[in-house]
Amino acid sequence: MKENFTASLVSLQEVYRTTSELARNIMEASVTADIIIAIARGGMLPGRLLCDFLNVDRLSSLQIKHYSSGAHQMEQAEIIDPVRVDLKGKKVLLVDDVNDSGKTMQLAVNHVQSFHPSELNTAVLHQKEGSSYTVDFVGRKQERWEWLIYQWAATEDILEFLKRDDMLQADTAEARRHLAKKYELNVDKALVETVMKMKGNYF
Question: Which Pfam families match (predicted)?
Fold first, then answer.
């Protein structure tokens, strides 16, 4: 993980728009799926949205841990909850929010292939430059590396940033100024207030 980096917040509205673009890319390639496998936790909402856009009834998941909160990267990606459905002979679409290092997606692909699907395609909302794995379908390519904070992980990421920088006791205004200065992360007052109220669940 980079020592110094910037971060940006990905809103739910942006996720919806990007997932719809991703769905159109999949449709234009005439790819269909019997089931979508979401890589938990980040792929859960994109996976559900793709079910809606692509009219796929079946949604399941596997959970892989590679990053913890606040952009901390673990040494190895690890499956902590494997696939528990029969995929033999099925057309599978494997979905995640972001393809960063590529290690999570590669591990997920290897795992799903062990269930002998008839077809396996991969899709992500965001593809970062320099990833070791190239997915089949991408909503948007990210040319400049930065940490993406999806709305569903805003609390854990922002709190971890503040903890790392010894800013957990800061008031809302101080926290917002710090996030903007160090990470170029502009977060509105209401969100920071909500995040700070959740500290007791984390520390």
Answer: Pribosyltran (PF00156)
